[in-house]
Specification:
With 144 residues, the protein is an alpha+beta fold. The protein has two domains: 1-38; 39-143, PH-domain like (Roll), CATH 2.30.29. It is built from three helices and seven strands.
Length: 144
């Protein structure tokens, strides 16, 4: 038997991976339970959307904002590192969240903004125009 692949070495590699996977599983399960208890429909980064409120963060002391009077946009920022940005426009302070650009993050941001605007009372056409505007900016950015 090759001494470099002894059972002790294999155990030293496999056991920590199994522990990390188990911890990740239980953390995700706890997050899903918390989202279900709060009535979360959709989330983007730490922004969680219910039928009537925007929850920023998690935990019992997470700030909640009523959706009435708010609007959301999803844009793709240019520069050295493309990012997807969701901006919740509020009277007084905007809430901004950025993630590195990927097709998944871009789609999630657009879906979040559209659902947010529909629940906030904007018409479907307004919500769709916000999404199409993001697509036009994205196309313009990558065409240059």
């Amino acid at each position: 038997m090759d001494p470099t692949l002894s059972p002790a070495w294999i155990g030293a590699l496999v056991v920590p991976m199994a522990v990390m996977m188990t911890v990740a599983f239980f953390v995700e399960r706890g997050k899903r339970r918390r989202d279900r208890a709060d009535g979360v429909l959709l989330s983007f980064d730490d922004l969680r959307l219910t039928r009537t409120h925007l929850i920023v963060g998690s935990g019992p002391d997470a700030p909640r904002f009523a959706l009435a009077g708010l609007s959301a946009t999803a844009t793709i920022t240019g520069g050295d590192a493309d990012e997807v940005e969701v901006v919740i426009e509020n009277a007084g302070c905007d809430i901004r969240r950025r993630l590195p650009y990927s097709y998944g993050a871009s789609g999630d941001a657009q879906m979040f903004a559209i659902k947010f605007n529909l629940l906030a009372g904007h018409s479907y056409a307004e919500a769709r125009n916000l999404r199409d505007g993001a697509r036009v900016r994205h196309t313009r950015h990558h065409a240059a």
